[in-house]
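Workshop exercise sheet. Pairs work together: one partner reads the sequence aloud, the other fills in the structure field after running the prediction. Swap roles for the next sheet.
Pair: D.N. / O.F.
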Amino acid sequence: MPAARRDRGAGSVEYVGVVVLAVVVVGLVVAAAGGAASAVTAGIERAFCSVGGGTGCGTAGEADAAGSGDSGGAGDDGAGAAPAAAPAGADDDTGGEGAGATQGEVAASDADRRDTARDARGSRRDDRRGTDPVPGPPPGTLNPDETLGLGIAFLGESVSLAEPPSWEPVDPGAGAYASEDSGVDDDATKFAAEAGANTLSGAWPNASRNLLHFLGNSGEPLEQDVDALLTDVPALATEYQGLQDEMGVTALLQAQEAGFTEPVTYPLSTPWSGFYIGQGLSDDWFYAMGGIQWSAVGEVTVYPPTATEPAWTYETTTSFVLRDQYNWDGGKGVTIGPLEVTDEQLAELHRAGVAQEFTATGESAVTSRKGTR
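Structure field:
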């Protein structure tokens, strides 16, 4: 891959270019000072030979190199000129006058540089990983059940916390904010809705709070009491627990198939699921939100059998993450004594710019579910 080649450093062609340029510049300076042109020629030949070797290397300027005692090499890899680098007992029948040995040493030096670069990259990856677990096999691949929100396995009993999936409202709401002129009717509707929200705050605390936030016209997100929601709407809690168990079994079967012999952990962030809170489930939460979307976010740890526990075991540890676009777009209304405020009237407040839709958010406390198979 291109990124990998960049990490391996400059190639031999680039080294030749740099060395030749340096030698030519030095040669010109020497020539300007009265040095002989032959010194430049010999220097260029030695530069080429020290990098790549080749036929005829070590002939021109050989006496000059021997006389000066120069053992300098190209770069910082320690590769010297051919005569100095020739090992004792080198084969004299090669016809290269030591050039073959120099080429082999340069190639070995290049390999050493590549190994050093690889070791450095590995060290940087380890530094970035820190104390994170080592990925289990196959590393870096997608989990076949990733569409369910299950990530790849990591060795160990914990992973870095997963993040909820990205979220967008599932309906357009009442329309563009402040896209219409406001009038006296809008002011009257807002006054009645505020009175109703305050009146019903005891019986419907969450519905009252959300309606007052809508009428407050800030448009800022508002945190919901998700633990109270799961307590007040048992059907939703049951659905959530069922998903925790489902993902636990899915991870356990994967770990079995992979043949893990020690605990492994899968990050978990399930796709958004829809749930409608009807009046039969909770009047308070029906008017507070109605339809919601939720995700289970956390991890699943799978434990292979041990001497004390002969069965495969999973533990799903997650929180319930909630999202909802608070709006009034059909099918709802609030009756306050003799007054009735319809959803269309409340939607009109948003379009008139005197109230504003917002995102309801929230996250439950972390809970765990265990199972065996």
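Discussion prompt: The mean pLDDT is 75. What would you look at next?
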